[in-house]
Amino acid sequence: MSEPDDGGSTGNVVDQLKRAVEMLRGTHLSLETYDPAKHGSLVSESPPTDLEEVDRYWLNAPFAYVSILHDPVENEHQYHVVEPRLDAAEEDLLETLYDDVRNPLLYADDDGDPETLLRTELRNRLEEFGIETDTNGFYRLFYYLWRRFRGFGRIDPLMHDPHIEDISCDGYDIPLYAYHEDYQDIETNVTFRKEELDSFVVRLAQQAGRHISVGSPVVETTLEDGSRAELALGEEVTPRGSAFTIRKYSEEPFTPIDLLEFGTYSLEQMAYLWLAIENNKNIIFAGGTASGKTTSMNAISMFIPPRSKLISIEDTRELALHHDNWLSAVTRERLDEESNITMYDLLRSSLRHRPEYILVGEVRGEEAITLFQAMNTGHTTLSTMHADSVQTVINRLENEPINVPRAMVQSLDVLCVQVLARFGGERVRRAQTVAEIEGIDQRTGELDYSNAYEWLATDDSFREGNRSLLDEIREERGWSQSELLREMQRRRRFLNHLWEEGVTQYQQFTAMVNRYYADPERVMERIGESAAEPEAEAADD
């Protein structure tokens, strides 16, 4: 669906003279609140008839919806955005309205409702110009103005789609691609011309308080809604033109129950990680791009005991927790390098806050030494790293540019390696390996590790290995072996109950976990028989 064109006037001389007279005379608009039952649909375009429509849903009702189409020849899906269509006169008018409405919106009182203000300003301008329009025409103009000033412009419909994880633009006049949870990588009907795309990339950077230019053409930033954006301007570093990739921020983060539902972890693994978190074990989540490592770290962090002092440190804001004693810190990058606040700066500062738990968005460089020093001084740490295997993580930690001494690396307790794989014709995220760091081998001097759990791609199952960490926890807690097994079984049942009840809202999930910490016997008593453990899980004991 094309956006209103930026071109010049298309009316003839007589029409222009008529409009000029009307503008001088002015008019009074008698408009009603839009009612689809009374005024009809604002979007009337039908999808291409040569393709099969397999899905359709609203993105921003009543202004935009998506039609998912299937091309039987290419055997691929297409993402077709449908928005209100403007006629030629409305397209011309829209450009004038952009300029006239901008200032009132920019300098409006922060306490006012921007939607009401935009409707008022639009109505005033139309009356001032002597423009006659009906309710539908008014709201079509309103939509495009709102999309430009308060939304995300041409990609606004995509940003409204909760099924889309990321959006990528590869250059001028090239269709945007989106990663859809049901249709994976899918081509859209949204494109940008050269001037539009350059302007759009600059605007995204400016709205995030960042500078992008031909001299500094690459920027990584966080957008106003929390989404992560990688921006490139011009053709110097991206020869096909300005480009961007946006990883959408979810206001509702995934919980451990979501990870169970997705099959990323099993009930057994989740109970294991819960015990590890509670008993102050240091964990790194590793994996390739889009493997879900940050998502998993955020979800597992919901097991942190209530009232524990927690500090998170990130380059771009991604973590979302329901924790009372949580200090969130984000790095700052400025043109003046002396004004930069790096991950290393924040991590050093965080230690003065005496946190019990430290969450670091991603370990990349010199901050790793401080992170491992924190491990050695009694701070429980969780972090992520870009690596595709246990050995790769160890190699990255011990070599340039991170250079953590081997003696310090052994402070790491658990390493979860995740993958984005294919199973049953679908892309899935799985915990490929959950490994335990066992220390330095006295004979070889190498770092030893063992696999507590492994994912079997042949049948999409998890195999249990050596879990000496549980024995370590058992000794620290003074439990007998039967008490350890009972606690693991009880937590599996608790999590399975939340899974069956669909407790995926993160505040509700955290509240339930906090109740368990306060009085596990009472919570399990209330759950009762509904918390019966699945036979496959119970058989392990």
What's the structural blueprint in terms of helices and strands?
Layout: H1 13-25, H2 36-39, E1 52-60, E2 64-71, E3 76-82, H3 88-106, H4 114-129, H5 135-149, H6 156-159, E4 164-169, E5 177-180, E6 184-188, H7 194-207, E7 218-222, E8 228-232, E9 243-247, H8 256-262, H9 267-278, E10 283-287, H10 293-300, E11 310-314, E12 326-330, H11 343-351, E13 357-360, H12 367-376, E14 380-386, H13 390-398, H14 406-409, E15 414-423, E16 426-440, E17 447-456, E18 461-464, H15 468-477, H16 481-501, H17 506-518, H18 520-527, H19 535-538
Parallel strand pairs: 3-6, 10-14, 10-15, 11-12, 11-13, 13-14
Antiparallel strand pairs: 1-2, 2-3, 4-5, 4-9, 5-6, 7-8, 8-9, 15-16, 16-17, 17-18
Helix pairs in contact: 3-4, 3-5, 4-5, 8-16, 9-16, 11-12, 17-18
Brief overview:
This protein is α/β, with parallel strands linked by helices. The protein is 37% helix and 22% strand. It folds into three domains: 1-42 and 84-150, no CATH class; 46-83 and 155-249, Beta-Lactamase (2-Layer Sandwich); 256-538, P-loop containing nucleotide triphosphate hydrolases (Rossmann fold), CATH 3.40.50.300.
